[in-house]
User: Which sequence fits this backbone?
């Protein structure tokens, strides 16, 4: 049975990912000056307890939190413009969850999330999800107004130019992958990748589509083209943590 990891991201995340992402966001969100605070995030003086099912859940939790951080101002503007926030039934302690789930909802074009039968439901997540989804039309309209107001062709245009350029450079960088030698040998990795249609080349300059090379300085690191990220994460080697994306 083929296991997939990235499909989950396209249809939404497990409840635990939203909870962990909200806890991370709570600690890293940009704090506004007192006279400019319109969205309140509750107390963040206590370090949150984070529990991850595995490395994949850890990675996507941090990715979701930092994505929400990049667009914090926009997400807050959408919540305020749509009048979805403030809401007396949602305490300040759940505002971070509201923001990270709003980011994910707009990423899914305001479509419903796929619910996974095997997961344990989290009451706070389901509450925020139901609340946001019930106002999806107002939220989508608020996003459209923000895009017109700022002349933004896409979400990335809300970011400062320096951050946009950093993101573009990062997306073009080759992918570095650690071989977990506690679980698999280098030769077995090479053999498995060959069966999957990958060809080993000599250097980074030779990378092209389904190819990879050894890192020049670390003999347990492989380098792949940046375009292969989604396909790599669908391999059993990653699902079994035999290969780890840096």
Assistant:
């Amino acid at each position: 049975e083929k296991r997939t990891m990235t499909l989950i991201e396209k249809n939404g995340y497990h409840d635990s990912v939203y909870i962990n992402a909200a806890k991370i966001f709570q600690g890293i969100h940009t704090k506004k000056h007192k006279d400019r605070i319109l969205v309140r995030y509750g107390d963040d003086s206590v370090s949150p307890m984070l529990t991850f099912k595995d490395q994949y859940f850890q990675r996507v939790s941090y990715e979701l939190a930092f994505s929400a951080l990049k667009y914090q101002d926009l997400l807050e503007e959408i919540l305020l413009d749509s009048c979805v926030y403030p809401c007396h039934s949602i305490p300040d302690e759940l505002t971070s969850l509201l923001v990270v789930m709003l980011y994910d909802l707009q990423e899914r074009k305001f479509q419903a999330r796929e619910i996974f039968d095997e997961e344990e439901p989290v009451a706070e997540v389901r509450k925020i999800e139901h609340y946001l989804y019930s106002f999806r039309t107002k939220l989508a309209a608020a996003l459209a107004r923000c895009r017109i107001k700022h002349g933004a062709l896409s979400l990335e245009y809300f970011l400062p130019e320096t951050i946009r350029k950093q993101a573009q450079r990062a997306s073009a960088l080759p992918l570095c992958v650690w071989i977990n030698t506690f679980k698999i040998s280098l030769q077995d990795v090479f053999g498995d990748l060959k069966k999957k249609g990958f060809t080993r080349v000599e250097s980074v300059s030779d990378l092209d589509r389904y190819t990879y090379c050894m890192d020049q300085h670390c003999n347990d690191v492989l380098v792949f083209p940046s375009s292969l990220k989604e396909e790599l994460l669908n391999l059993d080697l990653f699902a079994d943590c035999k290969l780890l994306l840096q």
